[in-house]
Every structure is written in structure tokens, then in C-alpha cells.
Write a structure and sequence with these properties.
Elements lengths: L15 H5 L5 H12 L39 H8 L5 H19 L1
């Protein structure tokens, strides 16, 4: 599949260590304790989304990068030949086809 060459602003990458291992300040700790002490009835949920996004709604590649796993897969020779004929990145294309099929089935359920 051909990639589009639309120009867009690059997102600023932040290392995970800066997000998950930076200790919180004493002020942040006090604020969290105050929030935890509040009863649920005092919390305003009006701007919170109602549900979790379905797997089919996740935009792959922007914020979520799936972990690749090496597998050994047996496919018919003619199928492999056809995919290889699609170009250099035929394995990526095979993954895209499988993902599309997965998402179609997830939406139908």
C-alpha cells in the first residue's frame, strides 16, 4: 500500500521514563489525598466519556504502537507469491490485511 505524503506537524515525543518514573511533588501528593477523600457524589463526571473505546476505534500508529511478534506461519504458495508481488513491504501489507479483517469482525459483534 502506498503511504500518503501529507505534511503534518510532528508530535513531541516524551520518554516513558519522564511520564512514569518521575516522582510527584509534595503539592501533587496533597492534592491527590484531598481528591481521594472526596465522596463519589461530589465528583463531576459530566465531561468524562461514557465508555471505553472499542479496539476497532483505536487509531493504530498515532498513540498506540502494537508490539510485533515473530511467528512462523504456513500459507499457500500462491497466496505468498501474490503478496510478495505487491512490493518490498509485503509482510506489512499482509499485517494490514489481517488487521482489517480483525477490525471488521470486531465491529460486527
Amino acid at each position: 500500500m502506498a503511504k500518503t505524503s501529507a505534511s503534518s506537524q510532528q508530535e513531541k515525543r516524551v520518554p516513558a521514563s519522564a511520564l512514569f518514573t518521575t516522582p510527584i511533588t509534595d503539592k501533587q501528593r496533597r492534592e491527590l489525598k484531598l481528591l481521594a477523600a472526596r465522596p463519589d457524589s461530589q465528583i463531576d463526571f459530566s465531561d468524562a466519556p461514557e465508555g471505553r473505546p472499542r479496539a476497532a476505534d483505536v487509531e493504530v500508529g498515532r498513540f498506540y504502537r502494537p508490539i510485533k511478534q515473530l511467528v512462523s506461519l504456513r500459507v499457500d504458495a500462491d497466496v505468498l507469491s501474490w503478496f510478495r508481488g505487491q512490493g518490498k513491504k509485503y509482510q506489512t501489507y499482509m499485517n494490514e490485511v489481517l488487521r482489517r479483517e480483525m477490525q471488521t469482525n470486531l465491529r460486527g459483534k
